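Open question from group meeting: does this chain pack into something compact, or does most of it stay loose? Before anyone orders reagents, we agreed to write out a predicted structure and look at it together. Recording both the input and the output here so the notebook holds the full record.
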Amino acid sequence: MGKRKKAIQEWREYRLSILEQKAKSDDDFEKYITFISSGALIITLTFVEKISPLDQSTNKWILIAGWGFLASTLLINLLSHYLSSRFNEMTIQNLDEGMVYEKLTCKIKERNKVISVLNIISIISLGIGIASILVFAAINAYNHG
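Structure tokens returned:
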């Protein structure tokens, strides 16, 4: 194998390893955001049950908003995961149909942009949900302390 062919092969292998790492990172993101948001929901239920029962709590709307944001995070994450799977199927179909490279890469970029926007919304929703719950907990811990 010539020097140029070897360099091209090395770059292809490197690119493939980056794609594999990206896929793992995407999977981890999906798992972690689900674990964090569902864990936060469970922790707040325990807080309400053990430390600050709702009938004694103030500013309940903050807690309800926090729960809403955490539930939204889970739903948006689920939608992102579903669309990602569907987009992969569409890309395979495009490849099977022989779509030209330039058009295919444009379609993939559009699809990836949708997933990226949903992931950013998930992160923001998770942050707002956790912040809301922390504010609720702080207010009620202070009022009951």
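Observations to bring back to the group:
The chain has a mean pLDDT of 89.
The chain is about 90% helix and 0% strand.
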